[in-house]
Amino acid sequence: MSGNIILYDTTLRDGTQGEQVNLSAEDKLRIAGKLDEFGIAYIEGGWPGSNPKDARFFELAARTSFKSSRLTAFGSTRRPGISSEDDQNIKALLQTGVKTVTVFGKSWDLHVSQIFEVSLEENLGMIADSIAYLKKKGREVIFDAEHFFDGYKNNPEYALRTLKAAINSGADTIVLCDTNGGSMPYEVTDIITEIMPHVRIPVGIHAHNDCGLAVANSLAAVKAGAGMVQGTINGYGERCGNADLISVMGNLQLKMGYQCVSAEGLRHLTELSLFVSELANIPPFNQRPFVGKSAFAHKGGVHVSAVTKNPAAYEHIGPEMVGNRRRVLVSELSGKSNIEYKSREMGIRLGGDGVDSQKIVAEIKRLEDQGYQFDAAEGSLELLIKKAIGQFEEPFILESFRVTIEKDRSGESSSHATIKITVGNDQEITAAEGDGPVNALDNALRKALTKFYPHINEMGLIDFKVRVIDGSEATAAKVRVQIESRDAREIWTTIGVSKDIIEASWQALADSVQYKLIREINHDGPGNNI
User: Fold this and answer.
1) Contact predicate 218/231, CB 8 Å
2) Closest by Cα among 80, 70, 17, 77 to 44
3) Under 8 Å between Cβ of 276 and 232
4) Which residue in 68, 181, 225, 487 could disulfide with 208, CB within 3.0 to 4.6 Å?
5) Angstrom distance (rounded) from CA 313 to CA 302
């Protein structure tokens, strides 16, 4: 082991400055609880002097017990020309009641002179007075040296003086900030190596991702001597975001030998990423390293063949180490290995001579040439495999449907669908209304099937996506419709393709319902009150 690294999470403050990230005080408290459970050392709750929401968060947090994390309040140094005792921002930090506070001050002379418009000496006084006053009040103080790397590159002597002002006033940790996110890893390494002889307290790093290097810069800083890494879950933050603590943890602990959290905690890394994504209402990024849905997904036939023999052939770690799982995708790039692996995963028995696999691969390639995409629609894929090898029995047969849309001069519109289906020897004709043609068709189909398969009402549609496959034909272009459905046990995705959006929607909808019904029929059969 190369030593322990202290993780400082600022998702609740810096992360919420990212575009489209908006968390209520209650959301923030839930995330703080998850971070505490995970074992993050410091959780920055917000800037209580800047907005009522953050002040309310600290009120809620005061009634919460944190087991492994220290809650931190964030704010600026005192304003120029007044004492720390009279500064409202400093007062707000103390009023939170937390034992650790983080204050930021300017380390770049450009910001001091041109943005703050104060003298360089006054800025040093603001840093020193604020930290000394907070230490006098019994607080652990972390000093964020804002724009430190840009400041050091422009005026190294003054940037270092800001650190010394903080150290001499009693700061417990200084954090070097690449606030504009423009530094290179070699610059971070060189600068930290140069300043370490002048610093007698722990050093941290706070990197932004404007050059896509926030994680790399954080790792470089650790190698150069930094013992604390600040960042956010999933890299949320202003502009291009902050250092992603998910990747930071994965790399430091699994690649570089440092200890950040327990090995058991690390096995919940994927869960943590998805939890924060859900509360932030931001779709998970499938290609996110370590925890993304695609991080251990294999599509090429050669890759899948190798992984079935030894996963290390195409996986840098075992996915279970971070709570993720291996996935094999099926597409026009697939070979027999993909189909055989996927069929085993689905519990489908194929013939041992490879004929079934070849037949399925050929059908997938034919359909994907028409615009289907089965790596994103595993519900439709399972139906396709069963149909191709004769293991599928239609739970219902569509005889016909009709969809009408009416719109009057008031602007109101309504949709109606009529459908005729056959189940066994019985026919059913029903009609229904809906919020749009697809919803009306869905309602009519459910209504027709309910008497045969009562459990159809357990399933629901949770997402509906339409994508134009080739825009060159304008409104006559083919569209791909993807429907995500769920019941109490699982979530599945189905797909349809056509030049007619209603027909494409029907294909995806019918697959979704058939997927649900064959699961139920395999247990009880139709009409048995499944």
Assistant:
1) yes
2) 70
3) no
4) 181
5) 11
Measured CA to CA, the distance from residue 231 to residue 494 in angstroms comes to: 37
Q: Name 9's bridge partners.
A: 43, 231
Residues 313 and 429 in one domain: no
Return the DSSP state at 131. H
3-state helix, strand, coil in the chain (%, to 5): 45, 20, 35
Could you say which of 367, 388, 409 is where a domain stops? Answer: 388
Instruction: Round to whole Å and give the CA distance between 9 and 235.
Output: 10
Q: Which pair of tokens denotes residue 128?
A: 């020193």
Is 441 found in the same domain as 337?
Answer: no
| Torsion from C-alpha of 188, 193, 197, 203, nearest 10 degrees | 40
Q: Given this model, what pLDDT does residue 527 score?
A: 37
Distance CA 264, CA 218 (A): 23
> How far does Cα 369 stand from its chain's mean position?
31
Task: Read off the tokens for 157.
Answer: 């002597």
375 and 401 belong to one structural domain: no
Q: Are residues 222 and 344 in the same domain?
A: no
Q: Which of 352, 326, 358, 320 is nearest to 339 (CA)?
A: 358
Residues across the chain: 530
- Collapsed DSSP state (helix, strand, coil) of residue 390: coil
SS3 34: helix
Sign of CA dihedral 9, 217, 18, 286: negative
Ranges in the chain, pLDDT < 50: 1, 524-530
Tell me if 66 sits within 8 A of 12, measured CB to CB: no
Q: Print the domain residue range for 359.
A: 297-388
In DSSP notation, 268-283 reads THHHHHHHHHHHHT--
Task: Please give the model's pTM, rounded to 2 decimal places.
Answer: 0.75
Helix (H) or strand (E) holding 422: strand 413-423
Do residues 176 and 121 share a domain? yes
> How many angstroms from the chain centroid is the CA of residue 5?
23
284: in domain: no
Q: At what angle do helices 245-254 and 214-224 cross, to 10 degrees?
A: 40
The string of pLDDT tens digits covering residues 270-282 is 999 989 988 898 8
Q: How far is residue 293's CA from residue 297's CA, in Å, rounded to a whole number?
A: 7
User: DSSP letter string over 58-77?
Assistant: HHHHTTS--SS-EEEEEEEP
Rg value, the chain, Cα: 29
Consecutive H or E run containing 327:
strand 327-328
Q: Residue 525 has what pLDDT?
A: 40
The one-letter amino acid code at 106 reads K
Which two three-digit tokens encode residue 497?
A: 């393709």
Which tokens hold the place of 34?
Answer: 């998850």
CB atoms within 10 A of CB 277: 18
DSSP assignment of 456-520, as one string?
GGG-EEEEEEEEES-GGGGGGS-EEEEEEEE-SS-EEEEEEEESSHHHHHHHHHHHHHHHHHHHH
Sole residue written with tokens 């007075």: 129
